[in-house]
Amino acid sequence: MPVSLSAYDNSSCAGSHVTSPAVLAGLRVGDTVTAFDGRAVSNFTFIQLTNLIRPLPPGTPVTITVRRDGKLLNLHTKLASVSGRSGSYLGVAPGVVFQVASPLAAIEYAGTTFGQVLTGSAQAVAALPGGLSELFRQNRAKTVAGQVTSLYGAAQITGAEVASDQGWQYKVSFVLLLVASLNIFFGAFNLLPLLPLDGGHIAVIVYERIRAWLAQLRGRPDPGLVDMGKLVPVSFSLFLVIVLLSVVLVVADIVNPINFTGG
Question: pTM to 2 decimals?
Answer without folding.
Answer: 0.62
